[in-house]
Design goal:
- The protein is an alpha+beta fold.
- Helices cover about 35% and strands about 25% of the residues.
- The chain is built from 6 helices and 8 strands; from the N terminus they run ααβααβββαββββα.
- The longest helix has 20 residues.
- The relative contact order is 0.21.
Length: about 200
């Protein structure tokens, strides 16, 4: 006997709904037509030195002992927003915060952060503590974005503030690849910034 579907016809789901579902990520994404693969990603990286990195690192390391990171809001304002603002400033990109997106009843809600350059798009989903479910939500957001943007490859990241994980959606292969690597803050800040800038400066596929 076949398993009943997770997503019900006629029912409405927001991006947050996928975070709250008690199902495996690959099962949820399969119902949206995508396969989930876990592998080490070869992510774009800038080769240009990030001159403001020492100042950013100093600010983060100075504030970390002073702020309790027990809420999603605290993590976003203390660790996520400062990093993305630096990337947007460096790349001269548009940074959209709580960006509304509605494709259909299964694909709608707000993207925590959307970094848009002339070449590329990057979705960032900030969570309090659950990276696995956060990745599922971010992957669904990438699927929604792929319905309205003309690209073959979309990049996303999920973060709990002091840890980041990347994913790539490939439209032609109907596949989402979840990076097995994590980038921690502040230890991996330089590598993380190089990746975020590299994605923002890449050419469209």
């Amino acid at each position: 006997m076949s398993k009943p579907p997770i997503l019900k016809e006629g029912q409405s789901y927001t991006f947050r709904s996928y975070f709250e579902m008690p199902y495996e990520p690959d099962e949820i994404l399969a119902e949206l037509g995508y396969a989930l693969v876990r592998a080490r990603l070869s992510l774009p990286k800038t080769t240009t030195p990030f001159e403001r990195l020492p100042e950013l690192r100093q600010r983060i390391e100075k504030i970390l002992p002073l702020v309790s990171l027990t809420s999603e809001t605290a993590r976003r304002e203390t660790l996520v927003a400062p990093v993305l603002i630096e990337v947007a400033t460096y790349c001269n990109c548009q940074l959209r915060i709580e960006y509304p997106l509605s494709v259909n009843n299964w694909l709608k809600g707000n993207l925590d952060y959307l970094l848009r350059s002339t070449q590329s798009l990057l979705v960032v989903e900030a969570k309090n503590d659950d990276m696995t479910r956060g990745f599922t939500q971010m992957a669904v957001e990438l699927i929604a974005l792929s319905k309205i943007e003309e690209q073959d490859v979309f990049y996303g990241a999920v973060t709990i503030g002091n840890a980041w994980q990347f994913g790539i959606l490939n439209v032609s292969h109907q596949q989402i690849t979840q990076d097995i690597a994590l980038y921690s803050i502040p230890d991996d800040l330089e590598e993380l910034m190089n990746i975020l800038v590299g994605i923002s400066q890449r050419k469209n596929s």
